[in-house]
Amino acid sequence: MSDLLRKEVEQILLNELNSAETTDLPLKRKEIAAWDSLKHLEIILTLEEEFNIQLTSEEVASIENSNDIIRIIEQKR
Amino acid sequence: MKHDITIGKFGITLRPVEIEDADFIFKLRTDPDNSQFIGDTNSDISKQYQWIENYFEQENDYYFIIESNSKEKLGTIGIYDIINGSGEWGRWIISKKHPVAPASAWLIYEIAFNILNLKEVYCRTVVDNKSVVSFHERCGLHRVRVEKDGVAIKGENKDLIIQMLSLKNYKMVQKKLEVLASFSERLMLRKGE
Predict the structure, then answer these.
(1) Does the CB of B174 have a partner CB in chain A at under 8 Å?
(2) For chain B, which has fewer Cβ within 10 Å, the N-terminal or C-terminal residue?
């Protein structure tokens, strides 16, 4: 797992979530109230644009934390 | 109640609950990720069938299955306890397979304000269900009050947060939901690529 990719993804998430809860890594959906289902889709839109990838509905639904995002991006690059 | 409202957009349809949906609803409600935030469900599935039979007799109670265009059942949603143009919307449980929360919320507001002609709707969400409370806040619902010990979950009383949307503001909320509901539709179309 690339450190650079990890940092990029975590920075995007921190910017998107803009939440005081977001201190522990990896960032977990269940632990961050602001990471609700609306914000989740906004994050996916940003990631798709940033990394020039397309996720499937199942992939989007399977994401529970920042590590899941990194794994999916690595698979698609 | 038995109703005939069916409405679709953004790759999903809300259609009336039928007795044949009891198994699906039971599985959804007893999924551990879901059951922590909803009122206790009897572990006897025959009670679910009975609950739906009773629901058919209830006035002002509109319960829906959320389905994909390919008829895959994705969740439930409803509007009920309608009094003087104000109703609660809830029973909102979505399977983890597809991110259809924005689309299903858009459709329930369409039913509430454009078909049932309600003046306002409100949600009662368990205080611990922070992501759903956040969802409603982000949409533009305003918090009205906290209902102390409003629901029993696994034998423990939980407070509920009441959030409200009026007829005046529902178009604005739908507008917010549209971009992401359209995106979720595109995601579902990518399935199997």
Answers:
(1) no
(2) C
Compute how many other C-beta atoms are within 10 angstroms of the C-beta atom of residue A5.
15
* DSSP states along B96-158: TTS--HHHHHHHHHHIIIIIS--SEEEEEEETT-HHHHHHHHHHT-EEEEEEEEEEEETTEEE
Q: Strand, helix or coil at B180? A: helix
The answer to whether the CB atoms of B191 and A38 lie below 8 A apart is: no
Closest to B97 in 3D by CA, of B187, B17, B6 = B187
Candidate from B133, B180, B191 with C-beta closest to A38: B180
Which tens digit of pLDDT belongs to each residue from B9-46?
999 999 999 999 999 999 999 888 887 778 777 788 89
What is the end-to-end Cα distance of chain B in Å, rounded? 40
Q: Are B128 and B34 in contact (CB under 8 A)?
A: no
Let me know how long chain A is: 77
ipTM: 0.88
The whole-model pTM stands at 0.92
B175's CB contacts (< 8 A; 6+ apart) are none
∠ CA B171-B87-B153, nearest 5°, is: 115
Helices A3-17 & A37-51 angle (0-180, nearest 10): 140
- Chain centroid, CA B167 distance in Å: 18
